C-alpha cells in the first residue's frame, strides 16, 4: 500500500466512523476503499470489520449521556447482538458471498421505510407504556440484525434504528445511543472471531481503526445536535445510498 493509498483508507475510516456514530452504513465507505487499493473482497470485509470496531465503540462512548436510564434495555438487547454477531461472522466464513446479496437491498429498503414513516406507524403499533420495556419482537429482530451485521454490516445502523424506533418508547437520539452500543457489540464479536480464525490485513485494519475512532467521536459530538427530523432524513438518505451502491 502506497502512502497516498494509506491516506485514502485513513480518510475513509474517518468518514465511516462519523457516519456510524450518527446513522450507520460507514462500511459503504471503507469496504469499497479497501477494494480500490487491491485487497481481495473477503479479506477486505474481515479487515474492515476489525478496523471499524474501535470506531463504533467511540461513537457509543460519545453518546453516553443518551444512554443514561437505559441499563435494563442494554442488558436485554446486548446478548441478542452478541449472538447475532457471532452467527453472522460464522456465516461469512462458511457461505458464498451471494448468499445474502439478494436480500440485503430489500432489508435496507424496509429499514428506510420504517424510519421514514415511524411517527405514523407508531400510532398503529401497540407501544409500551413504560420507558424500559419494549415490544416482544425487538429482541429477535436485534438478533437478526446482528447476524446481518456480522456478515457484512452495511446499513446495520439503519435497520437497528428502524427496529428500536418502532419497538421502544423513546426519542430518536436515545435510540441512536443504544444503536451505537449494539453495533459495537456486533462488530466486536465478529472482529474477535475473524482475528482468531482468519487472516487480517493489519495495516488496513489499523488505518481504519484510527480513522474510525476519530470519526466516531466527531459524529457523536455533532450528531446529537441534529433535530429528529434531520436525523431521520439523514438515515433515509444513507439507506438509499446503500441500496444504490449494493445493487449497481
TrEMBL record:
| Domain of life from the UniProt record | Bacteria
What Gene Ontology cellular component terms go with this record?
plasma membrane
Where in the cell? Cell membrane
Give the residue spans that cross the bilayer. Answer: 74-95, 102-121, 141-168, 180-197, 203-222, 229-247
Q: Which Pfam families match?
A: TauE
**Which InterPro entries does this one have?**
TM_pro_TauE-like, TSUP
UniProt keyword Transport, yes or no: yes
User: What keywords are annotated for this sequence in UniProt?
Assistant: Cell membrane, Membrane, Transmembrane, Transmembrane helix, Transport
Tell me what topology the record assigns in the membrane.
Multi-pass membrane protein
- Cited PANTHER family: MEMBRANE TRANSPORTER PROTEIN YFCA-RELATED, TRANSMEMBRANE PROTEIN YFCA
Q: Which family does it belong to?
A: Belongs to the 4-toluene sulfonate uptake permease (TSUP) (TC 2.A.102) family.
Name under which the protein is recorded: Probable membrane transporter protein
Amino acid at each position: 500500500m502506497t502512502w497516498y493509498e494509506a491516506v485514502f483508507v485513513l480518510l475513509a475510516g474517518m468518514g465511516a466512523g462519523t457516519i456510524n456514530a450518527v446513522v450507520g452504513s460507514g462500511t459503504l465507505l471503507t469496504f469499497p476503499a479497501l477494494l480500490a487499493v487491491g485487497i481481495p473482497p473477503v479479506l477486505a470485509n474481515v479487515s474492515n470489520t476489525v478496523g471499524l470496531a474501535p470506531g463504533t465503540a467511540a461513537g457509543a462512548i460519545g453518546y453516553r449521556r443518551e444512554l443514561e436510564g437505559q441499563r435494563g434495555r442494554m442488558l436485554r438487547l446486548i446478548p441478542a447482538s452478541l449472538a447475532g454477531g457471532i452467527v453472522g461472522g460464522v456465516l461469512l466464513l462458511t457461505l458464498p458471498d451471494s448468499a445474502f446479496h439478494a436480500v440485503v437491498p430489500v432489508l435496507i429498503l424496509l429499514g428506510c421505510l420504517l424510519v421514514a414513516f415511524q411517527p405514523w406507524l407508531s400510532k398503529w403499533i401497540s407501544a409500551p407504556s413504560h420507558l424500559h420495556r419494549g415490544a416482544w419482537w425487538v429482541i429477535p429482530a436485534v438478533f437478526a440484525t446482528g447476524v446481518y451485521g456480522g456478515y457484512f454490516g452495511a446499513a446495520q445502523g439503519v435497520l437497528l434504528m428502524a427496529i428500536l424506533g418502532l419497538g421502544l418508547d423513546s426519542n430518536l437520539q436515545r435510540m441512536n445511543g443504544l444503536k451505537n452500543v449494539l453495533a459495537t457489540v456486533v462488530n466486536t464479536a465478529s472482529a474477535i472471531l475473524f482475528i482468531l480464525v482468519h487472516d487480517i490485513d493489519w495495516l488496513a485494519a489499523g488505518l481504519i481503526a484510527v480513522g474510525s475512532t476519530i470519526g466516531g467521536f466527531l459524529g457523536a459530538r455533532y450528531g446529537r445536535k441534529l433535530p429528529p427530523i434531520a436525523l431521520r432524513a439523514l438515515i433515509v438518505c444513507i439507506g438509499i445510498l446503500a441500496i444504490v451502491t449494493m445493487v449497481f
